[in-house]
Fold:
Amino acid sequence: MPKSGAEHLVSLQDGRQIFLDGSPISDHVHHPAFRASVASAAKMFDFQAAPENQTKMTFVSPKTGERVSRMWQLPTCYQDLVERRKALEAWAELSCGFFGRSPDHVASALSAMYMGRHLFGDRGERALADYYEFARDNDLYLTYAIISPQADRSKSAGEQADEFLAAGVVGKDAEGITVRGAKMLATAIPMANEVMVAAIQPLKPGEEKYSFTAMVPLNAKGVKLLSRKSFEASAMSAFDNPLSSAFDENDCVLYLDDVRVSWNRVFVHGDIKLAQAQWHSTPAHVYQNYQCQVRLAVKMRFLLGLARKIAETNGIIEIAPVREILGQMAAETSMVQSMLEAMEITGTHYGSYFVPDGSRLYSAMVLTQQRYPKFIGHLRELSGGGMIMLPSSVNDFANAEIAGLVGKTQRSPVTDAKGRVKLFKLAWDAVGSEFGSRHLQYEMFYAGANMVTRNHAFRTADWKSSIGMVDRFMETYDLAGRK
Structure:
């Protein structure tokens, strides 16, 4: 039987140290800064455990014979990949695509590392294989922290003023390693069970202490979680903040204060080449970012629907320039879906596993990083002042005098005042609130700066084919003319 939401909530009550607003949080599962978002994550497990959804959302563990989440599925053909994607889409629809670090993201990374487990050496391969099976069969919600704190970005991890600003290994023995320092961005920490601590940024010879990959329980001794401001805590109500009141996955700085990690949870240690190879010589980087494109396709469909409803609510749907904007947004939404399907159709085998095409993936990432801010800009343009001039809160409707004035001023040809306010409150939360602004920043930078994704596109492009076409054509003529 797949893990239920109730079981997931129990698993989170583990005594982890989360700090918010200058104080430790003793029970984050029920704390007003986290409880609604944690509950939304739990509903994902309830959804997949529902009898009517189990065939779509789960598969049978080859080890236990029990049904577990398809996020752990290892496709061996195109049909398997599409079947898994449909499960990921169904999960993403529960949050309208606003859970950026849902459990299937890091599960995708870990599963793809497992596909390339032979690269990790005997000890690392055993640890990785055992942990993958453990996470799969217990339906763990994993997150990761794989970026060093920004600090002085002109210097590498080993050149910072504090040797252990970035998390590094300070000691090892027969039992495991001891880790000290910080990592970011530990997104979805409140609803996750464990965190992968690793390095995705390139390391130099002499920086071996920073080249480790380890799975750390979030309640391990010495793990300290420094939360950013909670948008959920600032949400006045579900009516006023329908997204941030339910899907604020929260981001934390992860600080490891001499945390002990046993060898059976360490996949990489002291190997700067393997620290990079785990992402790019295995399908990990492709597979995890493919999941991001699945989620983004869902999110853009939601935002497109929001844009259309705004145009209808404002009575501008028949205006030609408005239809042009909506047509542009519809084309871009279809483009994301088409590129997602293209990377599946042109997927390739990595050993016995079938994975999305990396070149198509990185092309999609470059384009969506550029288009998403413009997509949000179109939503703002369609809304105009409607997203700003709204009642202060749901309480305005409880006051007969104010509610009467709201009814007079919040007019629409297709809905009543409450319906109009409800729609524009949603629109503001999606694009203008702190929650919405955080999502804009997230979509632009979760995979690195645009120059990073462009370099991935450069690295995986089929240059041989393109240059070959040029060379073959140039061979058809010379100084004397056509051959």
About this structure: The longest helix spans residues 284-313. The two ends are 71 Å apart (CA to CA).
